[in-house]
Specification:
Layout lengths: L7 H7 L5 E7 L7 E9 L2 E9 L8 H14 L6 E2 L8 E2 L5 E6 L4 E2 L7 H18 L17 H14 L9 H8 L7 H7 L6 E3 L8 E4 L5 E4 L6 E3 L1 H12 L17 H15 L5 H5 L1 H22 L11 H30 L2
Antiparallel strand pairs: 1-2, 2-3, 3-6, 4-6, 5-6, 7-9, 8-11, 9-10
Bound molecules: adenosine-5'-diphosphate, 2-acetamido-2-deoxy-1-O-phosphono-alpha-D-glucopyranose (GN1) and magnesium ion (MG).
C-alpha cells in the first residue's frame, strides 16, 4: 500500500518555520526513521531543516521518546537543536496519524558510513565519550527506556532461537551456516548482563546506537560537531557505546558487504577509537568498565549479527532493506567481523590497557 507523500507546507507551518519550501529530499542512510532535508527560502537566504518521521512501530511510546530527547538536548551545550511545534510540543501528529519532529540542519558537517582514516575515528569516539561524560550528571528521574531490553543480548539471542523454530518465511534451511555460527557463541551473551546484575558495572546514560553515521564530523577538520540520532539515549552500559563504535568504525567494508574477504576489523582504527573515547570518558570510567571495552566491540557486532539474522528469518519486518536478502548480507558481514575481532582480541585488550595509562 503506497502512502501519501508528506504535506511539506502544512508541516512547516505546524513547526512555525518561516519561508517557502524550495526543496525536500530523503536524507541519510539510517535504517529506522524517514529523514528528509527540507530547504526554505527565508528573506535572502536558504535555510535547511531536518524533518523526521519517527518510526512508531519501533518506538511505540512517542511522548516518552520525545521527553527523553527534549531533556537530553536541553542539557547538552552543543548538538542537536529541536524545533518545537507552534503549540509548544516536541513533536507533531499529522492528520494521517504519523509522528514528526524537526531539527535544525547541521551544516558544514557530514556523517560517514565508512571511516576513512584514524583521525575520523578518534574525533567520532571523542564526541561519543564526551556525550556520555556530559550526561553523567543529567538531572531528574531515570530516562525512559524507549525500547525495553534494547541491548539485552540474552533476549536478542532467545528471539533468534524462536525465529529459527518458527521459520515463518521458510528461510531457515538456507542459513544453517549462519545459525551454527551464532549458536556456537551463545556463551558470550550473558557476561555483561551478569556483571551489571551483580553491580560490578554501573548503569549510565548511554546513546546505545553509536554507529559511526550517528555523529557528524566537520567537513574541513573532521572534528566532532554533534552526536545525532538520540532515540535510544537511555540507561545502558559504557561498553555498549564503545562497542557499537568498534563494530561500525573498524570495519574495512560496508555493513552489508557481500564480498566477505573485504571484511576485517582494522586495528589502527580500533586504536584511534580507544584514544578518542578514553580522552573524554577516561575521567569517569571505572576499571571494570575499561576491562569490558574490548568485549563490548565483539558483543555489539555479534548482537547486531543476530538481530539482522532474526529479521531475515522473520521476513524483514524491522530494518529498512533496499534489496532482497540485505539483512542476511548484513548478518554475514557482522559475523565475519566477529571472527576478525576474535583473532585480534588479545591485541585490542593491550591497546585499551595502553590507552588507559
Ligand atoms: P535513523 O534512526 O533512521 O538512523 P537518524 O536520526 O540517524 O535516523 O538520521 C538519518 C541520517 O540523517 C543521519 O545519519 C544523518 O546523515 C542525517 N541527519 C540526521 N539529523 C541531522 C541534522 N540535524 N543535520 C544534518 N543531517 C542530519
Ligand atoms: C539501527 O537507526 P540507525 O540506522 O542509526 C538500529 C541500531 C542498529 C543499526 C544497525 C533503533 O540504527 O540498533 O545497531 O540500525 N536502531 C534501532 O546498523 O534499532
Ligand atoms: Mg541513525
Amino acid at each position: 500500500m503506497s502512502e501519501s507523500p508528506p504535506d511539506w507546507p502544512q508541516l512547516i507551518q505546524a513547526f512555525g518555520l518561516p519561508g517557502a519550501v524550495t526543496a525536500a529530499h530523503p536524507h541519510g542512510s539510517g535504517h529506522i526513521n524517514d529523514t528528509y532535508a527540507v530547504s526554505l527560502q527565508q528573506a535572502d537566504r536558504q535555510r535547511r531543516y531536518i524533518l523526521q518521521r519517527i518510526n512508531h512501530r519501533v518506538f511505540t511510546n512517542i511522548p516518552a521518546l520525545m521527553a527523553n530527547i527534549s531533556r537530553v538536548t536541553a542539557h547538552l551545550v552543543h548538538g542537536m537543536r529541536l524545533n518545537p511545534t507552534v503549540a509548544g510540543e516536541a513533536f507533531l501528529t499529522d492528520p494521517t496519524g504519523r509522528f514528526w519532529r524537526c531539527y535544525d540542519f547541521i551544516e558544514g558537517a557530514t556523517t560517514h558510513d565508512l571511516v576513512e582514516n584514524p583521525q575520523q575515528a578518534r574525533e567520532a569516539a571523542h564526541s561519543f565519550g564526551k556525550f556520555q561524560r556530559q550526561l553523567v550528571d543529567l538531572p531528574g528521574p531515570r530516562l525512559h527506556e524507549t525500547i525495553p531490553d534494547f541491548h539485552h543480548t540474552r533476549k536478542r539471542f532467545n528471539r533468534l532461537l524462536a525465529a529459527i523454530t518458527e521459520d515463518r518465511v521458510g528461510r531457515r534451511a538456507a542459513v544453517q551456516a549462519e545459525i551454527d555460527f551464532a549458536l556456537a557463541r551463545e556463551a558470550m551473551v550473558d557476561h555483561l548482563l551478569a556483571r551489571a546484575a551483580r553491580g560490578e558495572l554501573p548503569e549510565r546514560v548511554t546513546h546505545n546506537d553509536t554507529k559511526i553515521n550517528n555523529v557528524m564530523l566537520d567537513d574541513h577538520t573532521n572534528e566532532g560537531v554533534a552526536v545525532i540520532d538520540l532515540d535510544t539515549v537511555m540507561p545502558g552500559l559504557a561498553a555498549y557505546d564503545f562497542g557499537d563504535m568498534v563494530r561500525t568504525a573498524t570495519n574495512s567494508a560496508a555493513e552489508d558487504e557481500t564480498d566477505l574477504s573485504k571484511v576485517r576489523c582494522r586495528l589502527e582504527i580500533f586504536d584511534a577509537l580507544a584514544e578518542g573515547y578514553l580522552s573524554a570518558a577516561g575521567t569517569f570510567l571505572t576499571d571494570a568498565e575499561r576491562e569490558e571495552l574490548e568485549l563490548g566491540g565483539r558483543l555489539m557486532t555479534f548482537e547486531n549479527g543476530i538481530r539482522f539474522l532474526t529479521d531475515h528469518l522473520e521476513g524483514d519486518t524491522y530494518y529498512k532493506i533496499h534489496r532482497p536478502s540485505q539483512n542476511l548480507d548484513r548478518a554475514r558481514c557482522q559475523f565475519a567481523l566477529v571472527q576478525s575481532m576474535e583473532m585480534q582480541a588479545h591485541d585490542m585488550r593491550a591497546i585499551i590497557a595502553d590507552r588507559s595509562t
